[in-house]
Amino acid sequence: MSRLIQIKGASEALRERLVASADKHHRSLNQEALERLEKSFEIEDALVGGRDQKWVDEAMAGEFRPGSIARLRQLAAKARRAVSA
After folding, report:
1. Could you tell me if residue 76 is inside a domain?
2. What are the CB-based long-range contacts (under 8 Å, 24+) for 31-40?
3. Burial profile 68-77: b = 16 or more Cβ within 10 angstroms, e = fewer
4. Which of 6, 26, 64, 79 has the most other CB atoms within 10 Å of its CB?
5. Which structural domain range is residue 70 located in?
6. What pLDDT tens digit does each residue of the chain (85 aa) get?
7. pTM for this structure?
């Protein structure tokens, strides 16, 4: 069973770049498109994983980052003090 994906609306310039890259890497157009799609997800996973690890490291170090619960509590306390002054 073939798993067919069609890409509609790709510009001729994009197609030409894909063909050139496929030729350079000795792959078919289909193989090149699949390779590039898979690489894009690998890059996304690495970026998200790095971001998540940074948040874990900050939490373990007791650092605050914008949007953290502790930071929000600090801001709320500051706002209450400003209102009551």
Report:
1. yes
2. 33/7
3. eeeeeeeeee
4. 64
5. 12-84
6. 568 888 899 999 999 999 999 999 999 999 999 999 999 988 888 877 777 777 777 777 776 666 677 777 787 888 888 877 6
7. 0.55
Phi, psi at residue 42, to the nearest 5°?
-65, -40
Which whole-number Å values give the CA distances from 19 to 14, 15, 25, 33, 57, in the listed order? 9, 6, 10, 9, 43
Q: Residue 28: which residues within 8 A CB-CB, separation 6 or more? A: 22
Distance from C-alpha of 2 to C-alpha of 49, rounded to nearest angstrom: 33
Coarse DSSP helix, strand, coil percentages of the chain, rounded to the nearest 5 percent: 75, 0, 25
Contact 28, 18 (CB under 8 A): no
How many residues in the chain? 85
Residue 74 lies in a domain: yes
